[in-house]
Amino acid sequence: MKPNTLRVMEALNGRLTFNDEQFRYLRNMQGGYNGECEFVAVMEDLKCPHILQRDLYFEPKFSGPIQIDFLLLIGNTAVIYEVKNYSGVWQYSEEAYRQKEFERANPLIQLARTKQNFKALLRELGYTHVTVDAVVFHVGTTFTLLGAPENRNVILPTQIQEHVTKLNQYQYDVSQSLVDLAGQLELAVRVAPPFTKMIPEYSFGSLKKGLKCEACAGFVEQFSQRICLCPSCGHKTNRADAVEAAITDYEFLFSDRKLSGSVLAEWCGGLISQSHIRSVIRMRNADSNRK
Predict the structure, then answer these.
(1) N or C: which end of the chain has fewer CB within 10 A?
(2) How many CA atoms are closer than 13 Å to the CA of 237, on its beta-carbon side?
(3) Residues 116 and 218 in one domain
(4) What is the mean pLDDT of the chain?
(5) PROSITE patterns, per this entry (predicted)?
(6) Which residue range forms the structural domain that includes residue 46?
């Protein structure tokens, strides 16, 4: 599931003019989410007995907060995965990855803190015997890291298959202790505080109205009764899908407001009649009640 902050930023994209920093933040969030989806696809090839947990956030009593992308429980080992989805050629150093004028902190630094804090959490929960490992997992197929040391804690794209193969060689069942730990961790998980610093202020009146293109976030025009066409990129969108996406965006941006035909007709830029919008709302409500 996409983080709510990403959903809000995507809903605002195109309806509000982002500055360079906000646009870069959106792209980084999208890259991170896509990277996590790629990691999930990779882990589907795991045939060994294991438990995989994702998007974990903890607030232990005796250490700082812990945010973990993925936690793999295998045998009697807990493996923390920090997933990165970078592209292009970067130069490695102990402090940072560098690319021309750009610089990113070496993820091993944060990962070391996460590992220590997680071990403190395990002590708090009474699981001092569990072995903890931590890995930075790079999924971007176009990513190259020059000068990278031979480090089993860094998995590069060309090493992914080898890493999965090694995991699959481990055929022992997950220990009962780790099975119990998985349950304890689920109970200990907290809701991560939303990061809203980069979300610009907005109001209904300040946002551009219309149906957005699913391909480029531009705005579509009516092409036929059922199809909308994006004049920017030429992508054709099913009108019903475009309306559904617009309503979903509205719900994320204005979650405290009740859906109404007149407001949503305006939100869709006048391309959809109020009667049609009301029909869509009724169908959505009926689907929700069936669930």
Answers:
(1) C
(2) 26
(3) no
(4) 92
(5) NERD
(6) 4-188
Residues 258 and 117 in one domain: no
Helix/strand/coil percentages in the chain, nearest 5: 40, 20, 35
Q: Is 219 inside a domain boundary?
A: yes
Res 196: pLDDT: 78
Do 130 and 249 fall within a single domain?
Answer: no
Q: Which range has the top average pLDDT, 117-121, 169-173, 240-244, 287-291?
A: 117-121
* Beta-ladder partners of 97: 92, 104
- With respect to residue 199, please indicate whether it lies within any of the assigned structural domains: no
Tokens 């869509």: give the residue: 280
- Single-letter amino acid, residue 154: V
**Do residue 231 and residue 168 come from a single domain?**
no
Does one domain contain both 42 and 155?
A: yes
Q: Would residue 283 count as lying in a domain?
A: yes
Residue with tokens 């990513």: 143
pTM above 0.90, yes or no: no
What is the C-alpha to C-alpha distance for residues 113 and 161, in angstroms, rounded to an integer?
A: 27
Q: Both 44 and 170 in a single domain?
A: yes
- Which of 188, 219, 234 is the endpoint of a domain? 188
Mean local confidence (pLDDT), 236-257? 91
| Band (31; pLDDT cuts 50, 70, 90) | very high
Work out the average pLDDT over 2-27. Answer: 93
171-174: long-range contacts (C-beta < 8 A, 24 or more apart)?
A: 171/48, 171/49, 172/49, 172/75, 173/49, 174/49, 174/50, 174/51, 174/73, 174/74, 174/75
Overall average pLDDT of the 38-59 stretch = 96
Same domain, yes or no, for 151 and 111?
yes
Contact 237, 230 (CB under 8 A): yes
